[in-house]
Design brief:
With 76 residues, the chain is α+β, with helices and mostly antiparallel strands. Helix content is 18%, strand content 29%. It has one domain. It has a four-stranded antiparallel β-sheet with strand order 1-2-3-4, covered by helices on one side.
Length: 76
């Protein structure tokens, strides 16, 4: 079995990826935006569960003056 990876997107923003390495049963989240760092390293049974967690996390983020916060790239 090879590894699997999926991009987690909210709207047009890629907020992270989830990767399941060969032999592993869970997907691990890797944040692409600092606003999603709280999910970094967390494991999920499915990619869909990670997507839901990202959506739930996004719903709790503060918004700037009634509009969505501008995404920022995070390089590690």
């Amino acid at each position: 079995m090879s590894s699997q990876a999926y991009i987690i997107e909210i709207g047009s923003d890629a907020v992270g990826i989830v990767v399941r390495e060969a032999g592993e049963s869970a997907f691990q989240f890797h944040s692409a935006l600092s606003a999603f760092r709280a999910l970094d390293g967390k494991k999920f049974a499915t990619a869909q569960a990670a997507q839901k967690a990202a959506l739930d996390h996004d719903a709790k983020l503060p918004r700037l003056a009634g509009r969505a916060a501008q995404p920022e790239l995070e390089f590690v």
